[in-house]
Amino acid sequence: MEIxxxxxxxxxxxxxxxxxxxxxxxxxxxxxxxxxxFGMAVVTVDGQVHVAGDAAEPFSIQSISKAFTLTLALGRxxxxxxxxxxxxxxxxxxxxxxxxxxxxxxxxxxxINAGAIVIADVLLAGHKPRETLGEILQFVRYLSGDDTxxxxxxxxxxxxxxxxxxxxxxxxxxxxxxxxxxxxxxLGVYYHQCSIAMSCVQLARAGxxxxxGGRDPISAQTVVGRERARRINALMLTCGHYDASGDFAYRVxxxxxxxxxxxxxxxxxxxxxxxxxxxxxxxxxxSAAGTRALELFAKKTGWSVFG
Length: 307
Ligand code: GLN
What we know:
This protein is an alpha+beta fold. It is built from 14 helices and 10 strands. Helix content is 46%, strand content 12%. The strands form 3 sheets. Strands 3-2-9-8-7 form a 5-stranded antiparallel sheet, with helices on both faces. Strands 4-6-5 form a 3-stranded antiparallel sheet. Helix 5 crosses helix 8 (164-175) and helix 8 (164-175) packs across helix 9. The longest helix has 16 residues, at 129-144. Residues 62-63, 94-95, 113, 159, 166, 194, 259-260, 285 line the site of glutamine (GLN).
């Protein structure tokens, strides 16, 4: 069966489930998003683009940005990064604070909020926040081959005004010496990376290098080496869905990174990069209908990293 036909079938089967879950309301700008939105895009390693539903509409990628900032930070400091952040699944919520005390301010992995705030701090080193934000945005534009990708300042400001828990995480890590820049600056970078708006098509396109051993098959540019691409995928599989990473691996069987905007980026190594968007979240803060759609899609294509 052709991928476009599979996508069409998934979309049809998903229709009764669209609107499932609860839109993130702790960030006021996200609480206003229409829960009936649903989009999906598949970009294959041979450059074909397949779409369903609202695949061309930009949404707030939120924590999906953490996959891109991790890639940048590894490029900047290499394996030295692992002295400041771990590589283990946390088994706790994305914004949990409890582990940090036991583990002396070293977050479990780069995808929980604390870990991503450390990554933002690494990217900020030696730069002004504006420069770091420019670097992140330029990288995501380069990956997506689309200069219209933007940061949504309203979303960033909305989160900044209500991000008490992230401020707690950052201050706590600073007390252990694991945040090097002023906390407000590091958080400013973090909130703005989370505010990047992209469509499913742009997002799937941006993730394509991870499906192709680190080399973007469309631009023919090497973004990272094969080993690094593998390792980023491994982290997405084990940590990309927080305390639901095991469940996502069980149901979908592919590396994925979710965001509270309701997006999920999934990598099918050697095959395609897939993005889905449906704003309603499950109890773990991952897109409810999005996960269900990916489960269906993986089942119908037979794609899985587990054979
Ligand atoms: N910006 C969000 C936050 O810090 C990101 C969380 C997420 O997408 N899981 O809470």
